[in-house]
Amino acid sequence: MKCPVCGMDCVQSAKDILATLPVFFQPCPRCSMRSLDKRAPLPSLEYAPLCSCGKRFIDEVFAHIYVIMVEEGDLMPVDPLFAVGSPLVHPGYAMDRPPFLPAKSLVLLTMKASKKTAERLIGEVPELRGVVKTGNFVPGIASPDLNSVPRVYELLAGCDVRADIFPLRTGPLVIYKQQSLIHIEFPRSGYPKIRSVEQHVGNPPVQLFVDACCGVGTLGLTAACLGTPRVVMNDAWYASAFWSAFNLEVNREYLKIDHVKIFEQLSDLQKHPVIRDQIKIAEGCGDQIVEVYQGDFHELPAVLPRGIAPVTALDLFDKSDPAATGKIRREWLSRAGGEVFIP
Fold first, then answer.
1. Of 54, 172, 210, 340, which sits 20 to 30 A from 83 (CA to CA)?
2. What pLDDT is attached to residue 94?
3. Omega into 91 within 30° of 0, i.e. cis?
4. What is the 3-state secondary structure (H, E, C) of 31-73?
5. Does this model's pTM top 0.85?
């Protein structure tokens, strides 16, 4: 599959990416492992080379990055190792031990690296697929006020498209995202949001599932993979709506869908990054129907099919105010009916 960000072949179908997963981050018998104290400086400005199998322990990869950032003046030799930044592995899933990284399996989130350094990192550290400059904010829509201008991180070098994998009772779900545009929600042990959707979808599944604030489509596509005949996903942020549509295509082989139509490409959506009225972004048709919209979820009931009581997931960004979330829940029920839950 062609990557919509870099145009290369760095994305795969769910079937292809899952086929490599069992041994993807596992060491070979010749791999070495050096555990480093992340709170301390690198003991010496050295790092081990790749194993002959092409993998390297994640701490050794960070040592390599640290050395380059010191050489470029982005870090001082007295800085702790964690000052390099935060790792996001590709593909991401809940692991019980640190990984041995193959080529192009790591997106680095950093506040320290310059663009020049990032380009050197991509050229010299084979495990890196992208370097992203972060800030003290959440990328994308971080408040219910759709009049505010969302802020995003900056892709300094490489490609920041990566996937997370979520286990369902019917099999794994693969979810891609462009990490500079989407807030970080790395898979947690136990996958509580996935379990919540499985509980509310039931078996046999409900007739209509709505993922009203869908992000990149994880909960809506979970409902689709569980056999829900009709699923509607929606997000006001263009990047979320696009990647929901893209993930529908990525996982199509595991759904009862004959084909997927994507009506708006990433370049089109960038022209209207946040909107209120619904625009249909994509549709998958077959024995199931899965639709993706961009727009304010308050207006979503106007496009829902009539005569079917929906089960709605309201995965609100800020769940800290019970009074506010309760009000949103009551407003949704008054317009859409059915059942609503906040995962």
1. 54
2. 84
3. yes
4. CCCCCCCCCCCCCCCCCCCCCCCCCEEHHHHHHHHHHHHHHCC
5. yes
**φ, ψ (nearest 5 deg) of residue 201:** -70, -40
- Structure tokens of 213? 């604030």
The DSSP secondary structure of 105-124, one letter per residue, reads: -EEEEESS--HHHHHHHHHH
- CB 50 within 8 Å of CB 206: no
- DSSP states of 79-104: S-GGGG-EEEESSB---SSPPEE-TT
Could you tell me the end-to-end alpha-carbon distance of the chain, in angstroms, rounded to an integer?
32
Furthest C-alpha separation in the chain: 68
Residue 321: pLDDT band with limits 50, 70, 90: confident
* Average pLDDT for the chain: 94
Q: What does the pLDDT look like over 243-293, one tens digit per residue?
A: 999 999 999 999 999 999 999 999 999 999 999 999 999 999 999 999 999
| CA dist., res. 253 & res. 272, Å (int) | 30
E strands, the chain, where? 56-57, 86-89, 100-101, 106-110, 128-133, 154-158, 161-168, 171-178, 208-211, 230-235, 257-262, 279-286, 289-294, 311-313, 339-341
Q: Please say whether the beta carbons of 177 and 4 come within 8 A.
A: no
Strand, coil or helix: 138: coil
Q: Which of 127, 292, 157, 305 is nearest to 213 (CA)?
A: 292
Distance CA 325, CA 333 (A): 12
* Token output for 123: 């050229």
Give the domains, in start order, of the chain with CATH numbers. Answer: 14-156 (no CATH), 191-341 (3.40.50.150)
Q: Are 294 and 275 spatial neighbours (Cβ–Cβ below 8 Å)?
A: yes
What share of residues in the chain are helix, strand, coil (percent, to 5)?
30, 25, 50
